[in-house]
Amino acid sequence: MKNLKKALVYSLLILIFGFVSQPAFAAAKVNLNTASVAELVELKGIGEKTAQKIIEYRKKTKFKSVDELTNVKGIGEKSLEKIRSQLTVAKKKVNKKK
Questions:
Q1: 42-51 per-position pLDDT tens digit
Q2: H or E stretch at 51
Q3: Do 49 and 37 touch, CB atoms closer than 8 A?
Q4: What is the pLDDT of residues 26-76, one digit of tens each?
């Protein structure tokens, strides 16, 4: 009976860990050229004002690389490094039918 309880507890812990860690691994990257204010503020260190500055910047010129984010006032190298892995400027794939 003790072994059954022990196995059940371990199984439950593994299951819980799987659910808790899943969002961290499954998170989609935020596209700097298409993200909304709501999506941008989800990034660590980006508030509403900075998110709005990012959107204003991209209205003038689309981001060609994540590194260009440092051109936005209020975002420096340190801030960028904290969120770089969560960002992309990838273009949407367009399926051309022939």
A1: 999 999 999 9
A2: helix 48-60
A3: no
A4: 568 999 999 999 999 999 999 999 999 999 999 999 999 999 999 999 999
Q: Token pair of 85, please?
A: 């892995």
Q: How far apart are CA 62 and CA 34, in angstroms?
A: 9
The DSSP-derived string for 38-96 is HHHHTSTT--HHHHHHHHHHHHHS--SSGGGGGGSTT--HHHHHHHGGGEE-PPPP---
Rounded to an integer, what distance in angstroms lies between the CA atom of residue 77 and that of residue 65? 14
Whole-model pTM?
A: 0.66
Fold type of domain 30-88: DNA polymerase; domain 1 (1.10.150)
Q: Hey, what are 22's tokens?
A: 């899943």
